Amino acid sequence: MAVVWHDRLRRGGVAVLEICVVAALYFGSAKLGLLQQLVRGQVTPLWPPSGIAVASLLLRGPRVWPGIALGAFLVNLPLGPSLPAVLTIMAGNTLAPVCSYALLRRAGFRNELDRLRDALALIFLGAFTGMLVSATTGTSTLALAGVLSAGDFWPTWSVWWTGDAMGVLVVTPVLLVLRSAHWPKHAPPARWAEGLLLVIATIAIGFVETGTTPLLFLGFPLLVWAAFRFQLAGAAPCALAVSTFAIIAASRGSGPFAGHDLLTKMITLQAFNASAALTALLLGVVVRERNETQREIARACGQLAEMAARIATGDHRPVLTNGDGEKNSANGRPTDTTKTASSSLRRRPPTGDKAGRDDRI
Question: Which pTM was predicted?
Answer without folding.
Answer: 0.78
